[in-house]
Amino acid sequence: MLIRFYVANFLSFADKTEFSMISAKGSHADDHVVRSNGFGVLRGAVIYGANASGKSNLVSAIDLARHMVTDSAKSGGKLIDKRFRPAFSDDDTPTHFEFEFSVAETVYAYGFTFSPTAVHEEWLYVLRGSSETVVFERDDTGFHLNETLFGGPDSVKRLKYMFDDLLPNQLYLTEANTRNIGNIPGSEPLIEPFRWFRDSLVIIYPESRFRAWDSIEQDTAFVDAMNRKLREFDTGIDRVSFEKRAESDIPETELPREFLTEIESKAGHTSVFVFGHDYNTYLIDWPDGKRRIRELCTIHETPSGPEMFRMADESDGTKRLTDFIPLYIRGTAAERTFFIDEIDRSLHTNLSTVLVSTLLRAFEGSRSQLVCTTHDTRLMDLELFRRDEIWFVEKDSSGRSRLHSLNDYRPRKDKDVQKEYLNGRYGGVPVLVE
After folding, report:
1. Could you tell me the maximum CA-CA distance found in the chain, to the nearest angstrom?
2. Which label site among 52, 116, 229, 396 has the fewest CB atoms less than 10 Å from its CB?
3. How far apart are CA 239 and CA 338, in angstroms?
4. Are residues 154 and 292 in the same domain?
5. Which residues pair with 136 in a beta bridge?
6. CB neighbour list of residue 231: distance below 8 Å, 6 or more residues apart
7. How far apart are CA 253 and CA 87, in angstroms?
8. How far is CA 18 from the centre of its chain?
9. Is the pTM of this model over 0.85?
10. Does 82 share its domain with 173?
C-alpha cells in the first residue's frame, strides 16, 4: 500500500510536496482505513483542481518513477528531463521522488534524485515505528550497503559488484533485480520494493486501454464477473464475446499485415497475441497450426434476440467501463494501488459516482487502494470519501503547484462541501475574469 509520496522539481511541483495516505485522527468511516504498523493507511483518495493546476502532473510523477524503477536506462541514454522550468535558469537542482509503502507488514522508504545525465542519490530503508534500517544508500561520492542484512561475504561481494557495474543513469534497485538475486539470503528487502513498483502500482490515463484479454480469455470467472458488472452498470450489454473474423474483412489500418507476419515469424504458433486499434481488439492464435483471428464484441439482448456490436460502436462511457471493470476484479484478487487520471472522462456523473463507490466497496477487506483525479464535484461527498481522502491542487502566480487536503479545513460532516468548493472555499477552482 502507498503510504506517502514526495516530489520536488518536477513539472509544476517546484517545491517538495507531500501526498499522504495516512489517516487523520477524528475522521469517520473507519472501514476506509487499513491498520498496520501502528498507524492507519487510507484505501482511497480523490484529487481536485482547475485545468492545468497540476493534478495530472502528480500522476505523471508517480508514473515516471515507476517507469524508471521497472525499466532499466540504456547505456548513454539521457533520463527524462521534466524539471520545473524556472529551475533551468536558477541552478542544477535534481528532480526528487520518494515513496513510503508497505508490502504485507513491512514498510519501506525508497527514493532517488536525478538530472538528465545521472542518478545522484538513491536510498532504501526498512521503517519500524520511529526507527529505520538502511538497506542501501548511494550518492555521487559512493555506495553503502548494509552488509548485516545479507548472507555472508560472498553475497555482499556480489551485491557490491552490481553497483560497480552500474551506469550513471541507472538505479541500483532496478539493476539488482535484473540479476539472479533471489538466491542471495536476506534479499527480500531488495526484491519486495521492486515487485511493488512492477506489480502493485498501476497508473491509468484517460487514453489507457485494457489489453490483457490474452491472459484472461480462458478465465471464465473473470469473464463472468466482467459480464455481470456490465449488466449492473446498465450498459445494455449482456456479455462480451470473441467472434471469429476473416483476415480479408479487417481493414489494414486496424490490423496491419506486417504485424501478423512479424509475430508469426518471431513466436511461431505457440502464443496468443492481442492487437488493439482504438477500442477494437483482436486476438490472434494458431490452434491446429492455422492462424485464427477473433474480435472482442459485445452482445445485446433485444426483443428479437441477441444482437452483436463491435466495441468501437459502443458509447464512450461504455468503452471506458471496459477499462475500469477489470480494476474491480483484479483489485479484489491482489494488493494493488491504482492511480486513475480523470476518472470521470466520458462518464455520466451518476455513473462516475457508482463506479467509484463500487471500487471502494470492493476493496474493503483487501489492501488495494484507489486514487483518482477528477472535476466531478459529485464525488466530493463525505458519505463517499473521508475529509482526509479529498485533496486539492492549486497553482500560484509563479506556476508552482500546491497540494492540500480538505482535512486542513476540518468541515463538519453535514457541511455542503461541494458548494463550498465551487465558491472557492478550498481552492483548486479556476479564477475567471470577465
Report:
1. 75
2. 396
3. 25
4. no
5. 124, 145
6. 237, 238
7. 43
8. 17
9. yes
10. yes
E-assigned strand segments in 280-368: 280-285, 292-302, 305-310, 337-340
In a domain, 286, yes or no: yes
For residues 109 and 255, membership in a common domain is answered with no
Note the Cα 76 to chain centre separation in Å. Answer: 28
Residue 391, domain member (yes or no) = yes
- By C-alpha distance, which of 135, 89, 95, 93 is closest to 112? 95
- Domain residues for the domain of 69 are 1-206+341-434
For 38-81, what is each residue's pLDDT tens digit?
889 999 999 998 888 889 999 999 999 999 999 877 766 788 88
Query: By C-alpha distance, which of 320, 313, 303 is closest to 280?
Result: 313
The C-alpha cell 449492473 sits at 232
Task: Give the pLDDT score at 412.
Answer: 63
How many structural domains are present in the chain? 2
Nearest of 15, 59, 46, 130 to residue 407 by alpha carbon: 46
Q: Tell how strand 292-302 and strand 280-285 pair up.
A: antiparallel
Judgement on whether residues 177 and 241 belong to the same structural domain of the protein: no
pLDDT for the residue 431: 47
Assess contact for 39 and 423: CB atoms under 8 A: no
Residues in the chain predicted with pLDDT less than 50, given as ranges, are 431-434
Q: Could you tell me if 389 and 354 are in contact, meaning their C-beta atoms sit under 8 angstroms apart? A: no
pLDDT computed for residue 264 by the predictor? 75
Q: First-to-last CA distance in the chain?
A: 45
Please check whether residue 320 is in contact with residue 308, taking contact to mean a CB–CB distance below 8 angstroms. Answer: no
Tell me the pLDDT tens digit for each residue of 123-176. Answer: 999 998 889 999 999 999 999 999 999 988 999 999 999 999 899 999 999 999
DSSP conformational letter for 171: -
* Residue 391 pLDDT: 94
Residue 434 has a pLDDT of 47
